[in-house]
Amino acid sequence: MFVPALFAALPTGVADLPMGSAPAALATPHFPDRLHAFVWRNWQLVPPERMASVVGARREDILRMGHAMGLQGPPRITSDQWRRSYVTIIRRNWHILPYEQLLDLLGWTPEQMAFTLREDDFLFVKLGNLKPRCEPLRYTKPDASVVAAEKAIATVVAREFRQGVGSLRRPLFQFVRDLSAPYKAPPQRQIPVTPRFCYSYFGLYGDPLADPHNDPYPNGYLARLAEAGVDGVWLQAVLYKLHPFPWDSRLSEGYQNRLANLRRLVARAKRHGIRVYLYLNEPRAMPLRFYEQHPELRGAVEGDHASLCTSVPEVQAYLRDAIAAIASAVPDLGGFFTITMSENLTNCWSHHGASSCPRCAQRPGAEVIAEVNRLFYDGIQAAGGKQQLIVWDWAWPDDWAECAIRALPRGVSFMSVSEWSLPIQRGGVPAVVGEYSISAVGPGPRAQRHWAIAKDHGLRVLAKIQAGATWEMSAAPYIPAVRLVAEHARNLRESGVDGVMLGWTVGGYPSPNLEVVRNVLSGMTVDEAMSAVAASRYGSSVAPAVVEAWNLASDSFREFPFHIQTVYTGPQHAGPSNLLWLAPTGYHATMVGIPYDDLDSWRSVYPAEVLIQQMRTVAEGFQTAATRLQSLLDDAGSRRSALELELGVLRTCALHFGSTADQAEFIALRNAAVGAVGDERARLRQRMASLARTELERAKTLYDLQMADTRIGFEATSHYYYVPLDLAEKVLNCLDVIRTLERE
C-alpha cells in the first residue's frame, strides 16, 4: 500500500499539521453532547484534571459528569500507561477535539504531533489521511435535559453492567508488567534455521530509543522470547535520529543518547542469546522547502515532499557513513534489514515516480534499489563487516526482482514474504495473497522464485512470515490457528530457507504459535510439535483436546476471506467496539485504524453476502474450539488459569469475526432499506434491530474478557483499539440504534 508523504519535517505551529479534506466530525447521538463523549472516552486513559484543563472546567466538573453517567472511578493513570496510550488517545479524540486541544490533552508540541503522525507506523494514514473538522470544545453547566440524559445513561449502565463500569479490574498494560517480570528460561536447543526474529509485543514504534524508560525488550520478556525459540528482535531505525543529518543537525538532536540506549539493549539481549536488528527504510524524504537550500539533492517529487536522490554522491555518502557509524558504535548489533519500496517515499523509485528526477529517470528501477542496498552493505563493511544485512523484496515488481537480486553484493541475505502471491479461493471467489497471512499457508510462487534466484546468486535466504498474529485479526495476542502456523514452518524447513522473520509489528507475544514454529524448525512433525506445546503449557491430560481445538480453529481459519483491502480496512480489528451507524457516515475505512461503515472497502473483491458467510464460518469454528476448551477447565488442575487465558483468546477471535459478519450484514440491510417500503422495509429494519441486539451482547461479553485479560484489544503500533469503556459505549450505541429502528 503506497502512501504519499504528507508532512513537513519541522513544523512551526498547529497550522502546519495535516488536515487533508477536513470533513465535519461525526456526532455521537447516544451521548447528550460532545462534552459527555469526551469525558466517557477519556475516563480510563486521561487524568480528570487534564481533561478539565482542556475544556475549561474544574476537576470536580469532570468527575460529576462521569459519575452522573454511572461511571465508577476513574482509575489511576500511571506514568507508564500514559507513555503507552498516545495512539489510543489520539484516535478516540479524532472526531471530538481540534488539534489545539488534542495537543493540550497530550501535553505535546506541534513538532511532536507531526513526528508521531508521520513516523509512528504511518499513523495519519491509519486515521484516514484527514483530520475531521471540530469546533473547540468548552465546558458548560448541564441544563435539565442534559441531567435527564445523564440519568438515563446511568440507568442503562446499572442494568447492563451489574458490577459497574469505569473502574478496572486490572490496570491497562498489565501484560507489560507480567512479561517483564524476572524469568529464567531453560537452556535452548540449537536450531539450524537462524535468525528467527520478531518485533516487540509492546514496544513503542516511532522513536523507540529516545527514552530508556520505554524499554521495548525488558529482560523478562527477552527470556520468554528465547524460550519460545526467538533468537533475534527488531526495531525501527530512522537514520537522522541515530547519526548527524549533514544538512540539518536539528533533526538529529539526542542521537548519541539513542546510540547509548541501543548499545545497552544489544548487550542485554546478547545475554539471552538474542541479537538485535534495525529496520531501515531510507533515506527519508524531505519537505520541498528543505530543497530551497539544497536543490542539488532533490529527487522524485511527491506532493509537498521529495526524495533525497540516492544517485547524488553526497546522499550516497550520507547513507554509507551513517550505517558505518552505527555499526562501529554498536559492534555487537545483529544487523539491519531493509525495505526499499514501501509506504514511505525514500529512493526515487520507491513509489515508481522517478520520472520527476532528472538522474534516476535515466536509470532502471532495479538498479537504483540494488544500489541503495549496496550502500548499506558498504557501510557495514567499512565498520568491519560484523553485522548482517537482510535485503527484503517487499513490493518489488516481479519484473525487477531478478535484476535487483543479481545486482546485490554476495555478502547480503535475501528475504521474501513467504505467502505473497499465493492463489486462494474463499467462498468460491478467487483471490491472491498480497500481504501477510496465517490463513493461507506458504510458501507461494513469488517467494520460491525469488529464493531460487538468490540462492543461484550465492545469497542466504530468509522467509518473512506471520507466526503469531496478522492483520487478519490483530486485537488478540495471537491467532490460535496453530496447525496452519505449524504447516507453514514445516514447508519452510523443507524448502531449505536459512532464516525466518517471525512477524511484522503484530504477533510478538511469546505464544503457542512461536513455540510450535520452534519445534517444527527443530525437526518435529506438525503433530509432534503441537502435542508437545499443548502438554508443556496445559498438561498432558488435556493436551489432545487442546490440539483438537487448535485444529478446529485452523480448519475454519482457512476460510478467512483474505484480500489485502479486507485485512487492512475490515472491522475485524475493532470488532464489537466499532459503532453501528444508521445513516452513512461518508467516511472511508482506514488502514487498520477506523472501519466506520465502509462495507465496500471491507468486502474488497468479495460480494457482501460472501464476506458475511465466510466471516461467520470462521467465527463458528473459533467458537466451537472455545466450547471444546471450556469443557476441559475442570480437568486442567493447576493449569486451569493458563487454559482460561487460551479460552479467552479463542473467544475473542470468535467475537471479532462474528461481529465483522454482523456489522457487514447490518450495513448491507441499511443500504437496502433506503429504497424499500412497507412490509419489506419493516422486515429489513427488524433484522437490523436483531443484529444490534446481538452486537450489544457481544460487546458485554468482550467487556468481561478484556477486564480479565489486558492483552485483549491491544497491538503494538495501534496501542489499544478499544478499552472496556468503548465496549460499554457500544452498548449505549446499540440501544440507541434499536430504539430508533423500533420507533420509526
Number of strands: 15
Q: Which radius of gyration do the C-alpha atoms yield?
A: 26 Å
Binned strand content: 5-15%
Number of helices: 27
Helix content: 40-55%
Q: pLDDT below 50 for ≥5 consecutive residues: which ranges?
A: 1-10
| N-to-C CA distance | 42 Å
Q: Please give the order of strands in the largest beta sheet.
A: 1-2-3-7-8-9-12-13
Mean pLDDT: 96
Structural class label: alpha/beta
Q: What best-fitting shape do the alpha-carbon axes yield?
A: globular
Q: How is the biggest beta sheet arranged?
A: 8 strands, parallel, barrel
Keywords:
eight-stranded parallel β-barrel; 744 residues; alpha/beta; disordered N terminus; 8% strand; 27 helices
Write up what this structure looks like:
The protein is of the alpha/beta class and 744 residues long. The strands form 4 sheets. It has an 8-stranded parallel beta barrel. A 3-stranded antiparallel sheet has the order 4-6-5, with no helix packed on it. The protein has a two-stranded antiparallel sheet with strand order 10-11. The protein is 46% helix and 8% strand. It is globular. It has 27 helices and 15 strands. Helix 14 runs parallel beside helix 15 and helix 20 (526-538) crosses helix 21 (543-557). The longest helix is centred in the last third of the chain and has 34 residues, at 640-673. The two termini are 42 Å apart.
